[in-house]
Amino acid sequence: MAEANPEQQPSAGVSDPDEDSPNMIVYRKIEDIVTRIQHETEGVPIRTVKSFLSKIPSVVTGVDIVQWLMKNLTIDDPAEAIHIGSLIAAQGYTFPISDHVLTLKDDGTFYRFQAPYFWPSNCWEPENTDYAIYLCKRTMQNKTRLELADYEAENLARLQRAFARKWEFIFMQAEAQLKIDRKKDKNERKILDSQERAFWDVHRPVPGCVNTTEMDIRKCRRMKNPQKVKKSVYGLTEDSQSQSPVHTPSQQGRKDTKEDVKKEIMFLNAQLDRHCMKMSKVAETLMGYTEQYLDYDPFLTTLEPSNPWTSDDPSFWDVEASKDPSQQRVRKWGFSLDEALKDPAGRDQFLRFLESEFSSENLLFWLAVQDLKRRPLQEVSGRAQEIWQEFLAEGAPRSINLDSHSYERTSHNLKDPGRYSFEDAQAHIYKLMKSDSYARFMRSNAYQDLLLARKKLETEQGRRTSLEKFTRSVGKSLTGKRLTGLMQSS
């Protein structure tokens, strides 16, 4: 196995490890197992696999890992071996080469072992600047092999806005790391790329996956500075310092009393209710929202053909309700998924796109639940059962993908069906469409072509209108001159 070069890896800070902590004990045991698995003679065979027009270096299969665990750890049940292997993979010690989800499968899926440089026992605490450098470097590399996933592209855009002042420094760091990578052998570079990607899959996991590096609250209490609270890995990291007598370092060996625990509970409850958003950020968000919707405010912007609020002409509403949307309406779909679903034309276009991806059942389920909320009370119970049989029951013709929590809540609610029995399931499906399908719809050729076509059509109509106005004005002026001449001659 090729070792990672620390000079070209993220410059994350490494804290002094607590060798006696439960996490470190677990890490050492896992690392002992991983080291034995990689043993040259007694471990699993690490080999290079020939693929179509390429070679895949330094890989093992999931079957080999499971069989080794069963043989060397005296495990009789394959499910238990898979479970242990998945726990090891969740910490990043092993990882699939073609997937971001760190689990172990008992099949021919190829896996690699993580370099010791990236092991969790080194107490890595990567910062968002390191993540930004990594994503920026990925955009400079071979896009067919290292193309950013949707959630990574969103994170890169968010980090670029957050670090706008030092983005030039981040870009230079990414270029420097890329130059070092290009000097390496092709196979070694491929292994290092996958190891670095797996490291970030642990610390910046795919949305929906468990983040195994999140800090436990009991560990926070043992820290010298417990007020250092880390925000979500997809946002920025800030250090919020607030004074509290509860978190003042106490004498060693002194146990917490009942009163101390009560004070700590009161302090944590107060922190939960604390409003942390700055007024400057609120004002900036409000100004951005106002500027975005400025062209759609009938009191601030002149509407075409006329403003129905100040005139008796309702033709504007007819144009807005038509199935042939204007360029302004099409552009509004890109503001949010809500705007696309509010517009009947946008909803139809989004449904066609989902049909092309064979996932239209998500939107159909969402629309069915919306319709259920507007039904008369006597029809709610029967319609709720129809929705269950169509989308959620076993063998449903349009089965949707729900998490276990939402499914259990929905099945429990249907014991006494109501208008809001599918609230949890609808919220889950909406999040799936917003984070996945809607982003692809905005980048799809169907939406971009429609946007450009409407823009071109309105430009041509504007030119024709301007030409007609010019022709009418010239005609009126010529007619006026003729009448004046006739009056003078007479």
TrEMBL record:
- According to the entry, every stretch annotated as the DEP domain falls at 40-115
The identity of this protein, by name, is: Regulator of G-protein signaling 6 isoform X2
Q: Name one GO biological process term.
A: G protein-coupled receptor signaling pathway
Q: Care to name a GO molecular-function term for this sequence?
A: GTPase activator activity
User: Which keywords does UniProt give here?
Assistant: Cell membrane, Cytoplasm, Membrane, Signal transduction inhibitor
Q: Where are stretches of biased composition, namely Polar residues?
A: 1-12, 238-252
Q: Indicate the segments forming the RGS domain, all copies.
A: 336-451
| InterPro entries from the UniProt entry | DEP_dom, G-protein_gamma-like_dom, GGL_sf, RGS, RGS6/7/9/11, RGS6/7/9/11_DHEX_sf, RGS_DHEX, RGS_sf
Membrane topology field:
Peripheral membrane protein
